[in-house]
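--- STAGE predict ---
source: upstream dedup step, 1 unique chain passed
mode: sequence only
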Amino acid sequence: MASLTCHFVFRTLIRLMFAYLKGKLVHKDPTFVILDIGGVGYEVKVSLNTFSKIKDQENIQLFTHFHVKEDAQTLFGFADTHEKQVFLHLTSISGVGPSTGLMVLSSLSPEEVEQAILSEDVRTIQAVKGIGAKTAQRIILELKDKVGKSTETGDLINIPISGKNAIRNEALAALVTLGINKAAAQKSIDKILKTSPNELSLEEVIKLALKTA
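--- STAGE serialize ---
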């Protein structure tokens, strides 16, 4: 009993300690970043939404959630408290883990998630990879009273990546990290790049691929 109590206290303290992290962005990827804080590198998983906002910055602050399970301890980071709150709402639902929460916020902005919940738009939520009809309905049912219309803006920063090959490789790596089958991801990305009349940013390719892979 004593060891269980100590473990609970430790986990609580860790969560309090990591309310946010502020440091130098030394590595960036559409699915995770590494922050250098006093010579220590912190690996933090991020959504595509957050990546879009921080990718061109050198010194950043991420609002964090520290997730602990028996075989892993993972930091999740968010560009603002609004996105973090939406993530916490989502992961409070049975069957929606942190990875699925990030998948939702990589496919939809926090505002789009809230709007889909408020309008009971099952189809939009179900379109996210890994979300079935029952889970989408549960999200709406349990969160409709908790979420409200946000006054924050979350526009993506669309800066094109030079060369379709670079976009293809980075998008593929991100999708595989998110749990998408590699062959399906490759097929989806290639189709998007081939049929798009305009040059797409990395984030746009990933978002489109998440809806079709």
